[in-house]
Amino acid sequence: MLRKNPTGHMPQVSETAFIDPTAIICGKVIIQDNVFIGPYAVIRADEVNEYGDMEAIIIKRDTNIQDGVVIHSKAGAAVTIGERSSIAHRSIIHGPSEVSDDVFIGFNSVVFNAVIGKGCVIRHNCVIDGLDLPENFHVPPMTNIGSDFDLNSISKVPPEYSAFSESVVSANHTLVQGYRRIANEL
User: Fold this and answer.
1) Which PANTHER family does the record match to this protein (predicted)?
2) Choice between 3 and 154, residue whose per-residue pLDDT is larger
3) Which residue has the higher pLDDT, 174 or 41?
4) Catalytic annotation present for 47
5) Cα 117 to chain centroid, rounded
6) Pairing of strands 70-73, 42-45
7) Strand partners, 3
8) Which residues contact 90 (CB under 8 A, 6 or more apart)?
9) Which strand ranges, in their side-by-side order, compose the sheet holding 138-139?
10) Is 2 left (phi over 0), alpha (psi -120 to 50) or beta?
């Protein structure tokens, strides 16, 4: 469901994207080409800053936002999800935040007030809060990273995890095409 926020902004959605009918997309949200938004996802850009302004939530092309994901932002701050990225089931991305291109964020993970570098893999049940991750980092399952975390203890992404991320993007790109095709049958 696409809906207006209290300041009057409506989502802008590419004709080549697929949004599940159970998802809620509210306000100043921009969804680019070939994006998949899964069941029960909520993407909500409706809070303003002290001047009454807000930045957009941008989901870039060929990205998938899976079932039950929540993307929101505090006080109108920007949230950007890069190209070919995967935000897995029930994750939360809360702005201000940026997820770069080719990133995989695993099930039930939370990102807040951080920039996630290109090619990072964040496994399931992780929290990234207030610390930016450089490119190609692998965050092991159930890791909590805060502002005082030693990033030197994190390894580069193993090749098999990057390949997995690419396969998820490919699978969801196929889902966009398939769901768009059957939506026209109804």
Assistant:
1) CARBON DIOXIDE CONCENTRATING MECHANISM PROTEIN CCMM, CARBOXYSOME ASSEMBLY PROTEIN CCMM
2) 3
3) 41
4) yes
5) 13
6) parallel
7) 26
8) 67, 68, 69, 107, 108
9) 18-19, 36-37, 64-65, 86-87, 104-105, 121-122, 138-139
10) beta
In this structure, are residues 13 and 31 in contact, taking their beta carbons and an 8 Å threshold?
Answer: yes
Residue recorded with tokens 């089931």: 89
For residue 131, how far is the Cα from the chain centroid?
17
Strand, helix or coil for residue 128: strand
User: How many Cβ atoms sit within 10 Å of the Cβ of residue 105?
Assistant: 29
Counting every residue written for the chain, the total comes to 186
Choice among 47, 55, 135, 166 that is catalytic: 47
Instruction: Look at phi and psi of residue 37 and say left if phi exceeds 0, alpha if psi is from -120 to 50, else beta.
Output: beta
All domains of the chain in start order, with CATH: 2-183 (2.160.10.10)
163 pLDDT band, cuts 50/70/90, is low
In a 13 Å sphere around the CA of 19, the CA atoms on its Cβ side amount to 23
Instruction: Return the exposure string of 135-152: e unless at least 16 CB atoms fall within 10 Å of the residue's CB, then b.
Output: ebbbbeeebebeeebeee
What integer pLDDT is reported at residue 172 of this predicted model?
Answer: 65
Q: Residue 48's closest CA among 38, 56, 58?
A: 56
Cβ pair 138, 179 in contact under 8 A: no
Query: CB under 8 Å to 159, separation ≥6 — which residues?
Result: none
- Tens of pLDDT along 14-60? 999 999 999 999 999 999 999 999 999 999 999 999 999 999 999 99
